[in-house]
Predict the structure.
Amino acid sequence: MTRVFVFTNHKGGVGKSTSATNTALGIAGMLRRAGAPNSRVLLIDTDSQAHATLVTTGTKDYGVDNSLYTVLMADRQNAAQTLLNGPKNSGKSTVMRVLQPLAFNMITTSDPTGPSMFRLIHQTSCTVGIDEAERYHNPKDPGMQQIRQLLNSGYKQGMPAIRVTGDDLKPQAFDVYSPKILAAIMGLEDILASRCIAIPMRRTTRKMPSFPPDFDGAPLRHQLYILALTHFQAVYRNYFERPELHKLHNRSGELWSPLVALAALFEDQGGVVGLLDAISNAAEWDEQISEGKSLSEREEAVLQALELLTRSADEVVWVKGTDLREKIRSLLGQSTDEMGNAQWIGHILKRLQLIDQSRRKHHVGGKLYAIERHEVLDMMQRYDVPPIYESN
């Protein structure tokens, strides 16, 4: 019969690592002296300081191939990429601060360079938090090209980034596979967004307490470690051996399957009724949007705004990007800060095939888009978007 001993305390310096190491050594020695056929003792070090690892192995230089994270992620083919998307003061940075002590070896930055990110993830397999990620919204920004490539390929195992290093320009494969959390006001460009689970953030109307400067996530982190270690087999079965849980395919299935597996665990063993349906419905809606089967709230508002702005026209209408943004803002009931600049409007118009390069031009106040009303009406009919009738 296997016995499990757990040494845990939220306070540091109380002897957890010392007690666990000496107990493991003592039991192993006792079993050997008793002539037991199996005298091995497994010592699991879940402390981020890795003192037990240092004592037993002489090193705590864990990384890509030899950490607890490696064990728990061994069968996972993709790592979560999460997008916190919302206006200013909606709590994105606060969520980052809460996740900092909870996520595995998390490092948060707001302006990383490509080379530093490649090396950081390759050496530590850390969770990367990127705050103020607005620059990734523009696919033509050359300064962000390397970061976008890293994010586009780093959500999936077996897709290293190849770079030349040293004076001899020797090619080297950098493993950029790790979880990533991005926070942005404007969202991301299409390809990168399709590799993320988006969480819309909204401002609250209530007075919220200030984030405690001495926030200690150790108790929650310990609970998460215990959850992972004690329910690993159940999550594994939900993830790999219960195909009826997983209704999505392709990239959406890769992104959402871990959450579906966890939701099934919490519902089956924790009694959280309705969680699995809620996660499954959110995943199906996300898949429909990413595959163009449904439109997002902003995309619907773009079509409704264009229908209003071209209602009295029969031919091509040159619509100002600023006027279109203001009409969309009015329909969505959002502030100017929440809308940001008008750059995302061009991405949506291209995605809906309402413009091409010849149907947009610059003017003093921004951009002009050549819109044909019949094309707008056709897209609204295809996606079942109702027109808006404004009262005078």
